[in-house]
Amino acid sequence: MPYRLLKFALSKKHPEPPFFQQPEQLKSSYDAVIIGGGGHGLAAAYYLAKEHGITNVAVLERGYLGGGNTGRNTTIIRSNYLTPEGVAFYDASVKIWENLSQELDLNLFYSNRGHFTLAHTESAMRTMRWRAEVNKHHGVNSEVVGPYDVKRAVPEIDLSCGGHAPILGALYHAPGSVARHDAVAWGYGRAASNMGVEIFQNTEVTGLDIQNGRIVGVQTSRGNIKTGKVLSAVAGFTPRITQMAGFRTPIVIHPLQACVTEPMKPWLDTILVSGSLHVYVSQSSRGELVMGASLDPYEIHSTRSTLDFVEGLSSHILDMFPFLSGIKVVRQWAGMADMTPDFAPVMGKTPVEGFYLDAGWGTWGFKATPISGKAMAATLANDKPHELIHAFRLSRFAEFELTGEKGAAAVGH
Amino acid sequence: MKLLNCPINGLRPVDEFAYGGELRAQPDPQTCTDEEWADYVFHRNGAPGLKQECWYHVPSGTWFIAERNTTTDSVERTYLWGEA
What we know:
By secondary structure, chain A is of the alpha+beta class. Chain A has 10 helices and 20 strands. Chain B is mostly beta strands. In chain B, the strands form 2 sheets. A 4-stranded antiparallel β-sheet of chain B has the order 3-4-5-6, with no helix packed on it. In chain B, a hairpin with a 4-residue loop joins β4 and β5 (about 60-70).
């Protein structure tokens, strides 16, 4: 538990000071500029200041802090990936998550639940065995379990899933957790701000100044900045920024929708994912079921919601949990997922010197927040890709060396 | 349900269609460089705007082209290849 809670309870000074400073004016130059005030951008700012002593940093956010995909995901944290590179990377993230509330001195509601990826077909079972073996080999706690282990953990489940998709087994991943996503952005933002990083909300980047293949500045809605290092951590807005930088990437934007039900008494302790039924579900600390499904099937640059989505998702949830038929969906929303062809992110250097990408986070970005912040900070500070992100470099496509991670996506998109 | 206008079958529910991605010119694989080929295979114009896209009407097996605004998701027009 963060000690700050205790201090706050005993303090006579109320209310607390604001989470972070909000300077009026941009300075004319910074050592580094981070585009995007979500979890990834703020984490990068925090580790730049903490681990590399670079504090003359501006974080530019078009809307409000954590208002993009940081505040739109379904908050699941896991490391049961398929490729050795992916497993090593996400496992490093989980290890930071475990102590992050303490480090940021903010209660992130980090809650270790255990994570079942259900298999309804023999081919899905084969992928689960594959993932379990890769995970164990890299010291990550995953194992294949039978249907009755699922039933023991979640007695409410209908193991036949309405009769048409019987559960044959599951990949069980004990470290699977959830956390409060907004708090992650606020925690990193506050900690970075305390070390001198300047955060600007409502500040849109309108252009990049590039001379002789090198970044020299950023144009914003609040004026121009000179800088030699720029990190783009803007998820669904990535293609707009790379267009300003003058190069193309494989990233295509698809909306990913999610919804929550009205709150219930706690009954679902674990996180459940079903690739065949295209659902993932967990119960939040407020009692709501947080549910997501697969991507919308074509490119849209918008966060609109659709009725098709809740209808489809509800029918699949009812296959698993018929007793939920009387429960209401109270809220739905969407995020713009920056999808890559191999379901791995795009991180590191780009064709423009001094311009770095932290993108391609599609439907798998929230869990990577701490480690991607750390890796991108090191990459910026040393102008050399961090060792954990070599397999995620942008040039892997031109080199035909993809990092096939689709088998570990939460649901078959 | 959103409707899409198939040039052969008229207005049909969008569920009957599959998205084939942005319409792109294929370089000649015999003469292009590896970089040009990789650019064609992987890279996309991911920025929002009015785009020409390939769409497929699954029940009738019809490929066609749609001009669609990817911000508003409104389809301006649809036509068969070669009709422009």
